[in-house]
Amino acid sequence: MATEEAHTTDGNEAAREGEGETDGSAGGADVSDPTLAHARELPPAFEPYAEESLPQVGVGSPGKVGELEATFAAGADGTTDLVADYARVPYHLSGTLGHDVDRPEFASAYVQSPTGGVAQGDRNRMVVTAEADARAHVSTGSATKVLSMDANYGRVDATFVVGDGAHLEYVPEQTILHPDARYCGETAVTLGRDASIVLADVVVPGRLARGEAFDFERYYARTTVDGPEGRILADTTHLAPGDETEDPRRAGVLGDYAVLGTCYVATTRDVDSGALSDRLAERVADGPARASASALPRDGGAFVRALGDRADDVREALAATWDEASRVLLDAPAPDPRKY
């Protein structure tokens, strides 16, 4: 695994800082604001899609712009509460759960969706803030389905702001790419001092049991993590089965595997990133997925990349990564990720 500050998973450099026009949903917003990941540059490969009109309701219409804002804060007794939230379809938040037995100070929230998935023309964003010393775990109630498309594209952006001394986890269910899906997403993290975050992502290239593997058109996801001393991570995954330069089935990308998973453990705490990487690598070495770990720059943590034939195998590797990270950073195991 590469340990450069900017790491890219594709056949060419898909993350071009400062190139391309902004997405129409950006509105010329101030991109220095850490809560505006959705206002950043549109990848050049998606610019032709953005010009395509939709036969149904257009981009920006009611029901096509989802928003979720959630703020967690630590109380005087050290436990964390969800102190503010706002949701607009397709997001729904029912409140917090108290099932984290080994970490009772945590607030856990599951983001739900009443819709079938991400459709063409959707522009969704979430902003999750963990204020100073807060402890929060956010997940989704089910897999995110990126539906088939014949015009435009779907975009889902997420921003996480982690205050001084806080710890935030975002461990959603997998993303499933239906035939002809076009997905663009950006995740931006801002860490305070002595802060940490665990981010997990599993990408399934189709409904595998139906023989739809790699029938999607394009998948682009970019993750950045910034701390007080500068950028810790910039990682881009750009997959396009119809383009030989970005075909995920090439050697060095997915090869003969179908499912891709990544878990980032980024921190500004006083942690030996090399030792953390070794612990994560040892934890996932004997699992059903093929996985390994690398340390992040600026002694900013580590990440695990996993490949597998089944989503469950990759999810198992990332769950083990999450658990080991929790033990290192918080001296407590992660909760059982099962939701049924």
TrEMBL record:
Domain of life, source organism: Archaea
Record localization: Cytoplasm
Cellular component aspect of the GO annotation: cytoplasm
Keyword field: Chaperone, Cytoplasm, Nickel insertion
Main location as per UniProt: cytoplasm
Record-level Gene Ontology MF annotations: nickel cation binding
HAMAP family referenced in this protein's UniProt entry, alphabetically: UreD
Function: Required for maturation of urease via the functional incorporation of the urease nickel metallocenter.
Family, as annotated: Belongs to the UreD family.
Protein name from the UniProt record: Urease accessory protein UreD
